[in-house]
Amino acid sequence: MSQPTSSHAYGIGMIALLVGMSVTIVFYTSFYLPESLLKPSVSEEILHPEGNLIINIAEGAVTQGNENFVPNMAAVELEVNNRVVWTNSDITGHTVTPDHRQIDSYSGEFGSHGVVLSGETYEFLFTEEQEFSYYCIPHPWMMGSISVGKARF
């Protein structure tokens, strides 16, 4: 009397399918969905301002007493020039680091990720009113500030 042979491949395949679907659902509901809903809605005028504010890291900024962030006290208006670009014109690398942790609810954490090398830029889009100071980590005498306000008209 021979026993019919059975294949466990079907059962193993079904288990693998169920585990795969479960992992996908957990990832979607735990990570993707909350992150996609995290960013606030921001008007198109703020996301695409009329122009940029350019802050130049001046040549020779590494020497104390020389100009460094030009302008070093910048005023930015939402919808007008709230995209700020730091351009390094110096031969030395610099950072753009906030004095205290600054987070824009749309753009995230402010501050260059590492050193901005000569000829490179660091760009940040401000979407809400705030004021803060920043500096260069390797050259702490290099300081600047940003004031972000609403457009007047």
Overall description:
Helices cover 22% and strands 28% of the residues. The protein is built from 2 helices and 10 strands, in the order ααββββββββββ. The strands form 3 sheets. The protein has a 4-stranded mixed sheet with strand order 2-1-4-8, with no helix packed on it. Strands 3-10-9-5 form a 4-stranded mixed sheet, with no helix packed on it. A two-stranded antiparallel ribbon has the order 6-7. The longest helix has 30 residues.
Keywords:
153 residues; alpha+beta; 4-stranded mixed sheet
* Count of domain modules: 2
Q: From N to C, what is the helix and strand string?
A: HHEEEEEEEEEE
CATH architecture of the largest domain: Sandwich
Q: From the helix content, strand content and strand pairing, which structural class follows?
A: alpha+beta
* Number of helices, where a helix is a run of at least 4 consecutive DSSP H or I residues: 2
Gap between N and C termini: 93 Å
Could you tell me the mean pLDDT?
89
The CATH C-level class name of the largest domain: Mainly Beta
Overall form: elongated
Helix content: 10-25%
> CATH H level of the largest domain: which superfamily?
Cupredoxins -  blue copper proteins
Number of strands: 10
How many whole angstroms does the radius of gyration measure? 25 Å
Strand order of the largest sheet: 2-1-4-8
Major beta sheet summary? 4 strands, mixed
